[in-house]
Amino acid sequence: MHDHGAAMTDPLHTLIRELEQDHTLEQPERLRERVHALDRLEDLLLHVSDARACDGPLRQRAQALHARLSTVQQRLCEAIRQAIKQGAGSQVLHGWTTPGQSPVADGYDHLDALVSDVLAFEEPTDDIASLDADMVFYQPTPARHVLDLIDRAAISDRDVLVDLGSGLGHVPLLVSICTGAHCIGIERETAYVEGARRSAASLQLDQVRFMAQDAREADLSRGNLFYLYTPFTGGILRQVLDRLKQEASHREIRLATFGPCTDIVAAEPWLVPSCQPGSDRITVFKACNA
Ligand SMILES: C[S@@+](CC[C@H](N)C(=O)[O-])C[C@H]1O[C@@H](n2cnc3c(N)ncnc32)[C@H](O)[C@@H]1O
């Protein structure tokens, strides 16, 4: 009979030995490698949880290693939280990006793992209201694309960014930390809004507001840069674009988009993109009938 348990413990044994010998993983700057190591450990521990052959000492070594690397992450995260509270978050967060590297489209990486800890995101425990037709479920913009948004739109502390469908608030929180801009998150799901407010309060960010509202009814008069990570499609997107066009008829505004809504926004004759529009990168549009 094939021994599944033993087969599972072998890769765990090899991994643990490899990671135990790599002391560089405890250097704070080895973020990418540490996050990858933690992911691999969690994955393997999960898979051997039912295997009777996974011996106690081996599991204890894996758990000790996981705890040690997690402690390094927690210390790093706390140092960044302190820097944010002292107004130095921008340099610290930009320091974790790879200079000159274009953000690739899909997926989350070590920067998202760090940002999620730094912003103290909580998974909402309340039931989430079901989405109406044309509404898109929650998914955060990957952190490297938020930093790309800041660069491409050259956001400064004179801007007021409005994230339409802001979820747990990644975009307003990161933009405010990195630029000092006033940021407003509009989100229909109350549990997300409450979580985003707690994240802002815990970092003493007083330039960020989160409103539990439908984007079709929200006050758009304060923003000059509106961000959409494909929060809705169809008729809702049409209504919101019409409202933004109305805003643009009497003042200067810009839109920034990410994801599939970019193609629809790019077809609006009153908007001019600052670069070739693409759904896999942030695209910034200027309203031309202002
Ligand atoms: C793809 S997520 C984007 C989250 C966030 N903007 C980000 O980039 O991290 C879309 C969000 O839009 C919200 N949403 C969908 N329809 C909405 C509406 N009509 N008004 C306000 N928020 C809406 C969803 O609840 C979800 O949190």
UniProtKB/TrEMBL annotation:
InterPro entries: DOT1_dom, SAM-dependent_MTases_sf. GO terms for molecular function: histone H3K79 methyltransferase activity. Residues 144-201 form the DOT1 domain. Transmembrane segments: none annotated. It holds the Pfam family DOT1. This is DOT1 domain-containing protein. The lineage of its organism: Bacteria, Pseudomonadati, Pseudomonadota, Gammaproteobacteria, Lysobacterales.
